[in-house]
Amino acid sequence: MYDKGKVIVGLVVFLGFATFPFYNNIGKKSAVPEPNLKTPVIEQMVVKKCIEPKEIMRGEHMQILNQWRDTVVREGERKKMTIGGVEIDTSLQKGCLHCHSNKKKFCDACHNYLSVKPYCWDCHFDPKERDV
Ligand code: HEC
Ligand code: HEC
Ligand code: HEC
Q1: pLDDT confidence tier of residue 52, bands split at 50, 70 and 90
Q2: CA–CA distance from 38 to each of 27, 81, 94, 119, 124 (Å)?
Q3: What pLDDT is attached to residue 32?
Q4: Distance (Å, whole) CA 57 – CA 54
Q5: Whether residue 5 has pLDDT greater than 90
Q6: Which of 61, 74, 86, 90 is an S-S bond match for 68, by CB 3.0 to 4.6 Å?
Q7: How far is CA 107 from CA 34, 39, 46, 60, 101, in A?
Q8: How far is the CA of 113 from the centre of ligand 3 (A)?
Q9: CB of 39 within 8 A of CB of 102?
Q10: What φ, ψ does residue 107 adopt, rounded to 5°?
Q11: 49 CA to middle of ligand 1, Å?
Q12: Which one has a higher pLDDT value, 37 or 11?
């Protein structure tokens, strides 16, 4: 009835095709984006640091932005803070994008790679790119 040999060969060939995209990507880690931190403000910072350590920022910047929005929009409170000698507001533009003014090479580099599309720019101003 069945030709066992052919079924196995067929399976091996199938698995080969099915997993090809996976094998083909091994060792291509270099494609991961390198967010560009170079902006005039960051270049001038006394201590080059973000509002939280880098590792926390990577994972939690969305929650921080939500908290900032809530304090401004719901509680009507605008806070100022000084980070590495730079005074900023709890604000998307006057905070994050004051330092990270190259949105395309910084924010978008990660988001495009991961297909994350924050809708913030429907309303918030997307600053002119300011590279060094
Ligand atoms: C005062 C300037 C300043 C402000 C304001 C600021 N950042 Fe940063 N940010 C930096 C610097 C400098 C680094 C690099 C820190 C390091 O290397 O330890 C950084 C790192 C990061 C990283 C990690 C990048 C990486 O390579 O993994 C993310 C994400 C980030 N910032 C997002 C934000 C967001 C979102 C905001 C606003 C909520 C913000 N930053 C506000 C200066 C700033
Ligand atoms: C190191 C890579 C990286 C950098 C740099 C980065 N982000 Fe993100 N961002 C992410 C990832 C990953 C997510 C998705 C997280 C998730 O879905 O849990 C995200 C999600 C977000 C979200 C939530 C979007 C949503 O639809 O839920 C906002 C808002 C955001 N980022 C703003 C910024 C801003 C503003 C900057 C630049 C100042 C920035 N990010 C820089 C990696 C990055
Ligand atoms: C429908 C329009 C709209 C969208 C979309 C929107 N915002 Fe806002 N946001 C506002 C308005 C209006 C204010 C109040 C502005 C003020 O009082 O200065 C505000 C205020 C803020 C503030 C505090 C003030 C400031 O200057 O930044 C933050 C932080 C913020 N939004 C973050 C976000 C983030 C992050 C996203 C995307 C995930 C987003 N917003 C999407 C309209 C919007």
Answers
A1: very high
A2: 28, 21, 17, 24, 22
A3: 79
A4: 5
A5: no
A6: 90
A7: 10, 13, 23, 14, 9
A8: 24
A9: yes
A10: -55, -55
A11: 7
A12: 37
